[in-house]
């Protein structure tokens, strides 16, 4: 109930105006989700981490019974206490996340969670005492929470809105399969390596993944926190709204603040275009062939026509009193917008509408 009340207070994003591309059929949409993962190494890497996590969870559920009854000889009630230790570890992990996992630490949190969960599960295989079993599931709960929350957050930052639902659909399917497989392989591992060996093998999976893929995980780091005003200005603009959050945060850092003097020409008709501009505050006047055509206010933009069409500036833009601008260099604007279908469509629509006015 508390979660529902908190969610109800969140601001909703407007539904995109473009035509839907969904077929409404499960298998074709799942196939598209697989295609998205195949084409996006970053999404695929995080999805693999989350799938391995659930594989280990499935194995750990079965191992809880075996560790309690066979390895440590703790009695039937100990199975429940081991699961309780997992829950307490998850609570402790949640508290640690609130303090440690802010933007710029997500990949580190995911890797740390893998190491913590794996090392904890290995413990009773190396130290066969009751306290090791409880510590193992306490650490598993904390590590699981780190990986789950950090991985889910990274998926939402790295995935575009129109593909994220398909990606999550594929991920949930693979996770259920992985959990079932993790439960099934435990008897085979015990037959091959014994109980202690099986515990060590399962516990080593996540740490080995974290160590082997650390460089790739580190490359996904989101970076320093974005300034709220800049991020909101980009997020609310139709050209940038379709972009993934990770891209918006990156662009937020690339924005250059400009405070022009009243009457200053920001761009001049006929000159080559070098920057794109967002109006953070105040207004600008747009002059075409020396005549005032219209004004733009806070939240609007200018400069996209020359950059997208590789033509000289089509108008002169003059700052008014109190004008504050945020500029993007040509390479940042063109790279972000033209590299994303929806963003490119929105930018093209804005440019065409203004060219029609110029004509």
Helix content: 55-70%
Rounded mean pLDDT is 87
Oligomer: single chain
What letter string, H or E per element, gives the SSE order? Answer: HHHHHHHHHHEEEEEEHEEHH
Q: Please mark out the parts with pLDDT under 50 across 5 or more consecutive residues, or reply none.
A: none
The proportion of residues in beta strands is 5-15%
Alpha-carbon distance between the termini? Answer: 56 Å
User: Cα-atom Rg, whole angstroms?
Assistant: 26 Å
**What is the general shape?**
elongated
Q: Largest beta sheet: what is the strand line-up?
A: 1-8-3-6
Write a structural description.
- By secondary structure, the protein is an alpha+beta fold.
- It contains 13 helices and 8 strands.
- The longest helix is centred in the middle third of the chain and has 52 residues, at about 160-210.
- The chain starts with a helix and ends with a helix.
- The model has no long low-confidence stretch (mean pLDDT about 85).
List the helices and strands and how they pair.
Layout: H1 2-8, H2 26-39, H3 41-71, H4 77-100, H5 106-126, H6 130-158, H7 161-212, H8 214-218, H9 228-235, H10 245-254, E1 256-258, E2 265-267, E3 275-281, E4 284-288, E5 291-296, E6 301-302, H11 304-309, E7 316-319, E8 324-329, H12 330-338, H13 341-358
Antiparallel strand pairs: 1-8, 2-7, 3-6, 3-8, 4-5, 4-7
């Amino acid at each position: 109930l508390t979660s529902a009340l908190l969610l109800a207070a969140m601001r909703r994003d407007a539904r995109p105006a473009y035509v839907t591309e969904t077929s409404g059929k499960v298998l074709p949409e799942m196939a598209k989700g697989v295609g998205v993962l195949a084409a996006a190494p970053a999404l695929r890497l995080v999805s693999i981490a989350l799938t391995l996590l659930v594989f280990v969870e499935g194995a750990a559920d079965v191992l809880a019974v075996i560790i309690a009854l066979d390895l440590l000889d703790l009695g039937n009630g100990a199975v429940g206490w081991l699961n309780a230790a997992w829950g307490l570890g998850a609570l402790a992990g949640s508290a640690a996340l609130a303090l440690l996992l802010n933007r710029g630490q997500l990949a580190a949190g995911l890797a740390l969670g893998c190491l913590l969960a794996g090392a904890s599960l290995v413990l009773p295989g190396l130290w066969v005492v009751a306290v090791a079993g409880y510590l193992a599931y306490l650490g598993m709960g904390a590590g699981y929470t780190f990986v789950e929350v950090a991985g889910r957050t990274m998926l939402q930052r790295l995935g575009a809105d129109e593909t994220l639902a398909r990606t999550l659909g594929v991920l949930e399917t693979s996770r259920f399969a992985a959990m079932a497989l993790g439960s099934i392989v435990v008897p085979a591992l015990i037959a091959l390596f014994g109980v202690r060996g099986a515990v060590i093998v399962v516990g080593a999976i996540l740490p080995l993944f974290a160590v082997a893929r650390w460089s790739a995980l580190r490359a996904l780091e989101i970076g320093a926190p974005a300034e709220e005003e800049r991020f909101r200005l980009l997020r609310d603009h139709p050209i940038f709204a379709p972009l993934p959050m990770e891209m918006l945060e990156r662009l937020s850092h690339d924005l250059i603040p400009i405070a022009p003097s009243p009457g200053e020409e920001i761009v001049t008709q006929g000159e080559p275009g070098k920057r794109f501009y967002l109006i953070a505050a105040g207004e600008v006047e747009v002059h075409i062939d020396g005549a005032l055509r219209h004004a733009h206010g806070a939240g609007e933009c200018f400069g996209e026509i020359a950059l997208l069409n590789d033509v000289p500036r089509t108008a002169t833009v003059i700052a008014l009193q109190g004008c504050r601008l945020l500029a993007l260099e040509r390479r940042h604007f063109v790279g972000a917008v033209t590299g994303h279908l929806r963003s490119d469509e929105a930018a093209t629509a804005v440019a065409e509408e203004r060219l029609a006015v110029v004509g």
